[in-house]
Write a structure and sequence with these properties.
By secondary structure, the chain is of the alpha+beta class. Helix content is 29%, strand content 24%. It is built from 16 helices and 22 strands. A hairpin with a 2-residue loop joins strand 2 and strand 3. Helix 9 packs across helix 11. The longest helix is centred in the first third of the chain and has 23 residues. It binds one RNA strand of 76 nucleotides through strand 1, strand 2, strand 3 and helix 2.
Length: 586
RNA sequence: GGGGACGUAGUGUAGCGGUUAACAUGCCGGCCUGUCAAGCCGGAGAUCGCGGGUUCGAACCCCGUCGUCCCCGCCA
C-alpha cells in the first residue's frame, strides 16, 4: 500500500500518529516557506502543512506540485492551532505536518476545475469523463449509487430473492421499443437483440421454479433520449411466484422506504404510499405519474357547465367530453403575457384554448365574455377558488386532451408558484391500468404494459366485447412525478395468453413464431406469477436531487446516443464487416 | 423526424455593426510562516464552433452546417 490511512478518515484521535497518505492535490496555498496543501482521495480531503525549516526536502518537493498531481505524504497528525480549525471539513480539527513527500505522478492542467462545483459545458465533462468523475460532487453521486445498489441486493437477498443473470445477447421482440441488434458471425444474415428488459427470461425462471428472482439488470432500448432516458439503463428486475399484486407492492414499498430513509436526505410525505387507480390519477392529475408533492387537483365542471351559454363548454360536454379546471392560488394578478404563455402550454397539450378567470379584489375577470356572472360565481364555489386565485379551464371533446393540457398547466404552475415541496418525497402506486390501448397508426389494440400482462379477474369477459375497458393487473411506482417502476401480474395459462394475442391481432402462427418458447413453457406447469422492474438510474437521480440520470451514470451517452470520450459509435473495418456478412449501404 | 436554447482565451462569462475583443478564475514567473476560494506584484494566453453571404467594415445581421442541452413525436 502506498498509504496507511485515508485522508478523509483522519480525526483528533489520530493525534500524534505518523501517517502516510496518498492522493490528489486538491488545492495548494503557498506562503513561501510554509505550504498548505489540501490532499484528496476518495474518502475526502485533509490539510497537509509543510514547513521549509523543519522538513526542507519535503518542502522542496511540495513546492513543485500542482493541482491534481498524485503525491504521497508522510507526516505527523496534529491538532490545528487554537482558532484555526476548519468547521467546513470533517477533518478540519487536525492537519498533517509533512515530514516526507513524493510525487507519484504529475498532472497536466485539467480542462476544467476539479476542485470547485462550477458549471462546466457538459460536452467537455463527457469528453473528459474520468476527470469529471473525479469531482467530489459527481463522486458523491456514484458512491450514492453504489450504496443504493448494495442496499437493494442485501434487502432482496434477505427477502428470499435470488440474483440470477440473464443473457444480453438474446432475441428481437416484436412489441415495444426499437431493439439494439448484434449481427451473428456464425449465422449469416441473422441477429441477436439486446434485451429491452429480461421480461420473458424472468418469467421462464418462474416456470423453472425459482419462485423469487431479482437482478440488477442492464436494459437496452434504441429510442431517442431524454434527461431521464438513456439507451442503456439499469433496472432492479423482480419476479415472484404464487403471489398477487399486493405481494409485489409489499416487497418494493419497504425497499423504497429504506432506500430513501437510509440514503436520501428528505422525508417521505405519506406512508404507506397512496394507491391511486389509473382512472383516479387521470381524473385528478391528468397523468399516470402524478407529482403528489403538491395539490392542485382538477375540478370537474362538466355537470355545472353542460348548459352554459358559452358554446365551447356546452359543446364539449355534448360531445361526450369534459370541462375541467385547476386553481392557481394567488395567481389572479397574472399579466396578459403570462396568461398567453399558459394558453400556449394548454395548446401544446392539445387544447384548442384556455379559459381563465382571475378572481381579483375588484371583481372576477373571465377571458370568456359569454360566461354569466352566476357561472363565474358557481365555478369559484365548485373549485374552492377565493380572492386572488386564478382558475384555468380546459374544455374538449377528448378526455385525454383535457387531461394532458391541465396536467402540463398544473406542473408548470406548481413550479412557478413554488407549490411543489422540494423538501420531501412523495411516492404513490398507480394501479388498474388499461390492459390495451388503441393504436391509431396501426388501427389495432396494443398492450399498454406488455402482452403477458393479466387482466383483472372480473374484466376478462370484456376482452372481446369492449377491449378498451379491460383493466390490467398492472401497477406503477411513482416518485416525485417520475415513473420509477412498473410491473404486473402475468398471464400464466395458455388459453388466457391466446385470448390476449387474439385481442392484439396476433394470430396463432405469429404467436407461435414470436413467443412459441414462452407459450410452450407455460404448458409445463407455470405457476401464477408476477413482477416489477424499477429504474435504478431514476431512483438514484431523485435521491441525489439531480434532474438528469446522466449525473448518476459513470459513463453516460449524449442526447444523440454518442459517447464523447470513446467517440462511439464508430465505423468498423471492411474485414469486420465481411466477417459479419454485412454491407453498409449509405 | 419536428420545435427551442446555447457555442467568444484552459474554464465561466461580458461584448450584439465601427479603436488593440473585456472581466473573473485558472496557467507561468516573483514575493510571502497560519492559509483553507490565501494574499500582493508581473506575464503569457482568443484564427469569437465551422462554411458561405450581406456590408466600406461582421464576434455581432442573414443562410447553411456541426456539436451540446431541453422538449414533442418515440420510449410494450
Amino acid at each position: 500500500m502506498h498509504k496507511s490511512i485515508d485522508c478523509g478518515d483522519l480525526r483528533l484521535e489520530h493525534t500524534g500518529q505518523t501517517v502516510t497518505l496518498a492522493g490528489w492535490v486538491h488545492r495548494r496555498r503557498d506562503h513561501g516557506a510554509l505550504i498548505f496543501l489540501d490532499l484528496r482521495d476518495r474518502s475526502g480531503i485533509v490539510q497537509v502543512t509543510c514547513d521549509a525549516q523543519n522538513a526542507a526536502a519535503a518542502h522542496e518537493i511540495l513546492n513543485a506540485v500542482r493541482n491534481e498531481y498524485v503525491i504521497q505524504v508522510t507526516g505527523l497528525v496534529q491538532p490545528r492551532p487554537a482558532g484555526l480549525a476548519n468547521p467546513n471539513l470533517p477533518t478540519g480539527d487536525i492537519e498533517v505536518q509533512a515530514t516526507g513527500a513524493a510525487i507519484l505522478n504529475e498532472a497536466r492542467t485539467t480542462p476544467f476545475y476539479i476542485n470547485e462545483d462550477s458549471d462546466v459545458d457538459e460536452a467537455l465533462r463527457l469528453k473528459y469523463r474520468y476527470l469529471d468523475l473525479r469531482r467530489p460532487a459527481v463522486q458523491r453521486n456514484i458512491i450514492l449509487r453504489h450504496n443504493v445498489v448494495k442496499t437493494i441486493r442485501d434487502y432482496m437477498a434477505d427477502q428470499g430473492f435470488m440474483e440470477i443473470e440473464t443473457p444480453v445477447l438474446i432475441k428481437t421482440t416484436p412489441e415495444g421499443a426499437r431493439d439494439y441488434v448484434v449481427p451473428s458471425r456464425v449465422h449469416p444474415g441473422e441477429f441477436y437483440a439486446l434485451p429491452q428488459s429480461p421480461q420473458q427470461l424472468k418469467q421462464l425462471l418462474m416456470v423453472a421454479g425459482y419462485e423469487r428472482y431479482f437482478q440488477i439488470a442492464r436494459c437496452f432500448r434504441d429510442e431517442d433520449l431524454r434527461a431521464d432516458r438513456q439507451p442503456e439503463f439499469t433496472q432492479l428486475d423482480v419476479e415472484m411466484s404464487f403471489i398477487e399484486r399486493e405481494d409485489i407492492m409489499g416487497v418494493i414499498e419497504p425497499l423504497y422506504v429504506r432506500l430513501i430513509e437510509q440514503w436520501g436526505s428528505k422525508p417521505i410525505l405519506r406512508k404507506p404510499f397512496p394507491v391511486l387507480t389509473y382512472a383516479e390519477a387521470m381524473a385528478k392529475y391528468g397523468s399516470d405519474k402524478p407529482d403528489l408533492r403538491f395539490g392542485m387537483e382538477f375540478v370537474d365542471l362538466s355537470g355545472l357547465l353542460a348548459d352554459s351559454g358559452f358554446g365551447v363548454f356546452s359543446a364539449a360536454v355534448a360531445a361526450g367530453g369534459q370541462v375541467k379546471a385547476v386553481v392557481a392560488p394567488g395567481a389572479a394578478g397574472y399579466s396578459r403575457k403570462q396568461l398567453d404563455d399558459l394558453a400556449e402550454v394548454a395548446r401544446r397539450g392539445g387544447a384548442k384554448g384556455l379559459v381563465s378567470i382571475a378572481y381579483r379584489d375588484e371583481g372576477p375577470r373571465a377571458s370568456a365574455k359569454a360566461l354569466t356572472e352566476g357561472e363565474v360565481a358557481a365555478i369559484a364555489a365548485a373549485a374552492h377558488a377565493g380572492a386572488g386565485d386564478l382558475v384555468l379551464i380546459v374544455a374538449d371533446a377528448s378526455a385525454a386532451v383535457v387531461a394532458k393540457s391541465l396536467s402540463e398547466l398544473r406542473l408548470l404552475l406548481g413550479r412557478q408558484l413554488g407549490l411543489i415541496r422540494a423538501d420531501a418525497h412523495a411516492l404513490c402506486w398507480v394501479v388498474e391500468f388499461p390492459l390495451l390501448e388503441w393504436s391509431a397508426d396501426e388501427q389495432r389494440w396494443s398492450a399498454m404494459h406488455h402482452p403477458f400482462t393479466s387482466a383483472m379477474d372480473e374484466d376478462w369477459d370484456l376482452l372481446e366485447s369492449d377491449p378498451g375497458r379491460v383493466r390490467a393487473k398492472a401497477y406503477d411506482l411513482v416518485m416525485d412525478g417520475w415513473e420509477v417502476g412498473g410491473g404486473s401480474i402475468r398471464i400464466h395459462r395458455r388459453e388466457r395468453q391466446a385470448a390476449m394475442f387474439r385481442a392484439l391481432g396476433i394470430g396463432p402462427e405469429e404467436a407461435e413464431e414470436k413467443f412459441g418458447h414462452l407459450l410452450e413453457a407455460f404448458e409445463y406447469g407455470a405457476p401464477p406469477h408476477g413482477g416489477i422492474a424499477t429504474g435504478i438510474d431514476r431512483t438514484v437521480a431523485i435521491l441525489a436531487g439531480t434532474p438528469s440520470i446522466r449525473d448518476v451514470i459513470a459513463f453516460p451517452k449524449t442526447a444523440s446516443a454518442t459517447d464523447l470520450m470513446f467517440r462511439s459509435p464508430s465505423s468498423i473495418s471492411p474485414a469486420q464487416l465481411r466477417e459479419l456478412h454485412l454491407a453498409v449501404t449509405e
